[in-house]
Design a protein that fits this description.
The complex is a heterodimer. Chain A is α+β, with helices and mostly antiparallel strands. Chain A folds into three domains: 46 residues, Uridine Diphospho-n-acetylenolpyruvylglucosamine Reductase, domain 2; 114 residues, Uridine Diphospho-n-acetylenolpyruvylglucosamine Reductase, domain 3 (2-Layer Sandwich), CATH 3.30.465; 94 residues, CO dehydrogenase flavoprotein, C-terminal domain (Enolase-like, domain 1), CATH 3.30.390.50. Chain A has twelve helices and 14 strands. A five-stranded antiparallel beta sheet of chain A has the order 4-5-10-6-7. Chain A has a four-stranded antiparallel beta sheet with strand order 11-12-13-14, with helices on both faces. Chain A is globular. By secondary structure, chain B is of the alpha+beta class. Chain B folds into two domains: 76 residues, Ubiquitin-like (UB roll), CATH 3.10.20; 69 residues, DNA polymerase, domain 1 (Orthogonal Bundle). Chain B has five helices and five strands; from the N terminus they run ββαβββαααα. Chain B has a five-stranded mixed beta sheet with strand order 2-1-5-3-4, sandwiched between helices. In chain B, β1 and β2 form a beta hairpin. In chain B, α2 packs across α5. Chain B is elongated and about 55 Å long. In chain B, 50% of the residues are buried. The chains are: A alpha+beta, B alpha+beta. At the A-B interface, α2 and α6 of A face β4 of B.
C-alpha cells in the first residue's frame, strides 16, 4: 500500500499553485484533504508525478457571508463546516450532510472543495450543491470563471474543470428564513458511501409546497437534480399520492450501478423512498 | 517517474522535536513507526477505514495512513506513546480502558485511546450516543465496543471529578 513516487510542492498562493500546475502539466494533481486521492494513489489507481498541496494557501480557508451568498473556501474541511455558526444558521442542510460524511478522522481532513471537485458520484456534497443552486469558482492560467454546479458534473470523475484549473470556492445562495430541508442517506454503515441519498430544500406557504428542489446522490454516474420530482410536489400538501408521484419521477432519472450496496432495482427502489422521507422531513422543519 | 528527491521534514512528536529525510510518498504512519520507532500507532487496514493508525495532529484526530509525512511538516503530533501522564502514571483514558476491560486483543486500542483523547478535549461530557458517533472511525474487530464506550465514560467522569455510574442494563 505504498503510492508511486512523486514530487511534492506546497505553494502559498493560488497564483503560485496555478503556475506550478501549468509548468508541471498533465502529470500534476492538486492535493486538498487527500482522503480520496491518497487512497487512490495507494491502490496505484492514481499515479501523479507531482502533487501540488493546497494546504498552505490561506486564501482558500474562509467562510464568509457576501451579500445574499455564503462563500466557502475550497480548503474548508468538513469539520470546519460543522464548527461554523454561519453555516449552522444560514445553510443548516450543509451541516446535516457533513455529519453523514465518512467518520470524524476523515472529516478533520476532507475538504468541501475536494468533495465537490472530485466528481465522485458517491460523494454527498455534489447533489446538495445542485439542490442549493451553488456556484463554483475555478481559477486557472487564463483567469477566474464561475460555473454553476448544475453545469459542472459531466460523468463519473469527469467535470468542467479544465487541466490546470483549481476549484477555489463554493458559493451558496442564502436560503429563505423558514425553509425546510433534509438530507436522507441510506448507507450500510457509518463511513460508507450512500446506497441512495436525497437532498430536499423547500418552502411552504399556506400548508402547501411553494418551492422545492431535490438532489440525488450515488444513483447515476453523477449527482442528479430531480426537477420533475420537485415539480410533482409544488402546490400540494405532500399527501401520499404526491409523494408517490415524486418518488416515481425521481426513479425515472436514476441509473445506479449494481455493486455491494445492491442491484440497480433495489437502489432505485430505496432512492425513491429517500426522496419521500426527505420531502416529509423537510416539510416538518419548514415554518 | 524515477525516484523522487527526498525531503527533510521536521515536526514535534510527543513534545520532542524530530526530523527525518523522507520520500514525499512516505506515509506518516511509516515515518512514525519506522523512522521514529514509535510502534504504538498500528497499521490495520491501510485503507482509511479502521482507525488503528489514529494519531493526534494539530489538535485533530488523523488516520496517519492517509497523510504523507511531508504534509505533517511543522505539525504538533501526539501518539499513544504520549498519552500517559507526565509522571508516567496512566491517563484517565488508559485507566478507564484497564478498569472497564476496554480491550481484548488490543490491536485497535492505541487508535481508540488517541481518538477518545481528542473526543474528550472537544466534548468533556459526551453522551453514550456522542461517544459512539465520535469513535465511528475506529473499528474493533473483537467487537468489544460496549466496554470501550464504558472506558471512555469512566475517563470522562474521572476528568470531570464526578462518579462513574454504569447505565442500567
Amino acid at each position: 500500500m505504498i503510492p508511486g513516487p512523486f514530487d511534492y510542492h506546497r505553494p502559498d498562493s493560488v497564483a503560485d499553485a496555478i503556475k506550478l500546475l501549468a509548468e508541471l502539466g498533465d502529470e500534476a494533481r492538486p492535493l486538498a484533504g487527500g482522503h480520496s486521492l491518497i487512497p487512490m494513489m495507494k491502490l496505484r489507481l492514481a499515479t501523479p508525478d507531482h502533487l501540488v498541496d493546497l494546504a498552505g494557501i490561506g486564501a482558500l480557508k474562509g467562510i464568509v457571508r457576501d451579500g445574499d451568498r455564503i462563500v466557502i473556501g475550497a480548503m474548508i474541511t468538513q469539520h470546519e463546516l460543522l464548527a461554523s455558526e454561519t453555516i449552522a444558521s444560514a445553510v443548516p442542510i450543509l451541516r446535516e450532510t457533513a455529519l453523514l460524511i465518512a467518520d470524524p478522522q476523515v472529516r478533520y481532513r476532507g475538504t468541501i472543495g475536494g468533495n465537490v471537485a472530485n466528481g465522485d458520484p458517491g460523494n454527498d456534497m455534489p447533489a446538495l450543491m445542485l439542490t442549493l443552486g451553488a456556484e463554483y469558482t475555478l481559477e486557472g492560467p487564463s483567469g477566474s470563471r464561475t460555473v454553476a454546479a448544475s453545469e459542472f458534473y459531466q460523468g463519473a470523475y469527469f467535470t468542467a474543470i479544465e487541466p490546470g484549473e483549481i476549484l477555489t470556492s463554493v458559493s451558496i445562495p442564502v436560503l429563505p428564513a423558514g425553509h425546510g430541508y433534509a438530507y436522507e442517506k441510506l448507507k450500510r454503515k457509518i463511513g460508507d458511501y450512500a446506497t441512495a441519498a436525497a437532498a430536499v430544500v423547500l418552502t411552504m406557504a399556506g400548508g402547501k409546497v411553494a418551492t422545492c428542489s431535490i438532489g440525488l446522490t450515488n444513483l447515476a454516474e453523477t449527482a442528479l437534480l430531480a426537477d420533475d420530482a420537485a415539480a410533482a410536489v409544488i402546490g400540494t400538501t405532500l399527501d401520499d399520492a404526491s409523494l408517490k408521484k415524486a418518488a416515481e419521477a425521481a426513479r425515472a432519472i436514476m441509473s445506479p450501478a449494481g455493486d455491494g450496496r445492491g442491484p440497480p432495482e433495489y437502489r432505485k427502489h430505496v432512492g425513491g423512498i429517500m426522496v419521500e422521507r426527505a420531502l416529509k422531513r423537510a416539510a416538518a422543519v419548514a415554518r | 517517474m524515477a525516484q523522487a528527491k527526498k525531503t527533510q521534514v521536521s515536526m514535534t512528536v510527543n513534545g520532542q522535536p524530530v526530523e527525518g529525510l523522507v520520500e514525499p510518498r512516505t506515509l506518516l504512519i511509516h515515518f512514525i513507526r519506522e523512522n521514529l520507532q514509535l510502534t504504538g500507532p498500528h497499521i490495520g487496514c491501510e485503507t482509511t477505514h479502521c482507525g488503528a493508525c489514529t494519531i493526534d495532529m494539530n489538535g485533530m484526530s488523523v488516520k496517519s495512513c492517509t497523510v504523507f509525512a511531508v504534509q505533517a511538516e511543522g505539525a504538533e503530533i501526539t501518539t499513544i506513546e504520549g498519552i500517559a501522564n507526565p509522571d508516567g502514571t496512566l491517563s484517565a483514558l488508559q485507566e478507564g480502558f484497564r478498569m472497564m476491560h476496554g480491550l481484548q486483543c488490543g490491536f485497535c486500542t492505541p487508535g481508540m485511546i488517541t481518538r477518545a483523547h481528542r473526543l474528550l478535549q472537544e466534548n468533556p461530557n459526551p453522551t453514550e450516543d456522542e461517544i459512539r458517533f465520535g469513535i465511528a472511525g475506529n473499528l474493533c474487530r473483537c467487537t468489544g465496543y460496549q466496554n470501550i464506550v464504558r472506558a471512555i465514560q469512566y475517563a470522562a467522569a474521572k476528568l470531570n471529578g464526578t462518579e462513574f455510574k454504569e447505565a442500567a442494563e
